[in-house]
Inverse folding.
């Protein structure tokens, strides 16, 4: 079994897998690269990507269809949906995609189009990044939301209670 290790440069995430498709000297390719994305916007929310996202995995092929299976790891920074504080979170997710030179499709799979045996990883990464973002961004699973100064009774936090408090203070003089 022949195995080729390839490290892509962040500026060029296109890989030529001609040898792999033809079965010349190689039948698996280990791939690793960093995708340098500064930030993405999801539903109007800005998410910073703190370090270049790391992707590792391997490409195998049956001669016609190439399959990539791997894993992405990144650290995001964004605002908590509940308390608005800025927090960081580490995300890891799997990427499994298939590629073909033909405009080929079947009911079960979606394929990325290769051009002249070349895979462009940028659209793959962007698609998987969007698919794997959390539904909600929370600084912690038990985030209570915006913390008010009232700790004893939530009713004391109502605008009326605050108003009453103000009158009481002023009237006391
Ligand atoms: Zn929070």
């Amino acid at each position: 079994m022949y195995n080729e290790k390839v490290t892509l440069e962040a500026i060029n995430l296109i890989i030529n897998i001609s040898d792999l498709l033809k079965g010349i000297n190689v039948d698996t390719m280990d791939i690793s690269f960093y995708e340098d994305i500064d930030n993405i916007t999801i539903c109007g929310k800005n998410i910073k990507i703190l370090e270049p996202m790391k992707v590792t995995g391997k490409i195998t092929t049956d001669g016609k269809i190439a399959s990539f299976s791997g894993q992405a790891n990144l650290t995001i920074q964004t605002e908590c949906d509940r308390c608005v504080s800025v927090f960081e979170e580490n995300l890891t997710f799997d990427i499994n995609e298939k590629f073909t030179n033909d405009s080929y499709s079947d009911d079960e799979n979606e394929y990325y189009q290769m051009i002249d045996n070349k895979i462009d990883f940028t659209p793959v990464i962007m698609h998987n990044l969007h698919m794997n973002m959390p539904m909600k961004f929370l600084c912690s699973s038990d985030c209570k939301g915006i913390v008010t100064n009232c700790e004893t009774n939530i009713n004391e936090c109502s605008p009326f209670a605050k108003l009453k408090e103000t009158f009481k203070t002023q009237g006391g003089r």
User: Anything to note?
Assistant: The chain has three helices and ten strands. Strands lie at 3-7, 14-16, 28-35, 39-42, 45-49, 53-61, 65-79, 86-100, 111-113, 118-120.
